[in-house]
Amino acid sequence: MDPASDPHRALVPLLMRHERQIFAYIYTLVPHRHDAEDILQETCLTIYDKFQEFTPGTDFLAWAMRIAWWKVRQARQKYARSKVVFNDEVLEAVAHTAENMQEETSAMQICLAQCLQKLNERDRRMILTRYERGSGVERAAMVSGRSLQAAYKALMRIKQVLHDCVTNSLSKEEALS
Questions:
Q1: What is the spatial distance between Cα 102 and Cα 59, in angstroms, rounded to a whole number?
Q2: Cα–Cα distance list, 4 to 9, 12, 17, 174 (Å)
Q3: What pLDDT was estimated at residue 1?
Q4: Residue 171 burial (CB < 10 Å; 0-12/13-18/19+)?
Q5: How far apart (Å, rounded) are the C-alpha atoms in residues 139 and 130?
Q6: Based on the structure, what is the number of domains in the chain?
Q7: pLDDT tens figures, 24-47
Q8: Residue 2 has pLDDT above 80, yes or no
C-alpha cells in the first residue's frame, strides 16, 4: 500500500495534538493515573480502528472523547470493587463538565504559549524546567544559575507575569467576541 494513500496518515497529527486533552478527560473520570493511561491506550486503539468513520473537518477531539467515554464506561466494572465508585449520573455530570471545559482550557493553553514566548530566555527556560516531569525548584535554580531563594522569588514573579498576561489576553479575546 502506498503510504500517501493510507487513510490513517491524517490520524497521527490529530492524536499528537489532542492526546493530552483526551488523557486529561479520561483522568477526570477514573480514580488512578495508571488506569487512565491504560484507558487512553485502549481509546487510541479504538480511534485507530474506527478512524475511517471519522468525518474530516468535524471536531476530532469531541469524537475522540466520545470514544474515551465509552472506554471509561467499559472499565467501570473493573472499579466496582473500589471504595469510591460514582454512580452513572455523577460520572455523566463530570464528563459533561470536562467536555465543556475543553474549549476554555484550549484558549488558556494558546494564551499561555504566547505569553511564554514573551518571557526572556532565562525566565522561560527556568519556568519550563520547573514544571518538567521529575523536576523541581532546585533543578530550575541550577539551570538558571540562581540560588534556591532567588529561584523561589523569580518563579513567583514569573508566575505572576504569566497569570497577568494570560488573564489580559483572555479578556481581550472575550471583548472581541
A1: 12
A2: 7, 13, 20, 41
A3: 45
A4: exposed
A5: 7
A6: 2
A7: 888 888 878 888 899 999 999 999
A8: no
Alpha carbons 94 and 150: distance in angstroms, whole number: 40
- Residue 100 within a domain: yes
**What gap in Å lies between CA 64 and CA 67, rounded to an integer?**
5
Please report the pLDDT score of residue 56 as a whole number: 86
Q: How far is CA 158 from CA 90, 112, 119, 124, in A?
A: 38, 12, 8, 9
HEC string of the chain? CCHHHCHHHHHHHHHHHHHHHHHHHHHHHCCCHHHHHHHHHHHHHHHHHHHHHCCCCCCHHHHHHHHHHHHHHHHHHHHCCCCCCCCHHHHHHHHHHHHHHHHHHHHHHHHHHHHHHHCCHHHHHHHHHHCCCCCCHHHHHHHHCCCHHHHHHHHHHHHHHHHHHHHHHHHHHHHHC
Q: Is residue 54 part of a domain?
A: yes
* Mean pLDDT computed over 144-173: 90
Domain of 169 in residue numbering reads as: 119-177
Cell numbers for 146, please give them: 540562581
**Same domain, yes or no, for 30 and 97?**
yes
Cα 64 from Cα 100, distance rounded (Å)? 14
Residues 77 and 6 in one domain: yes
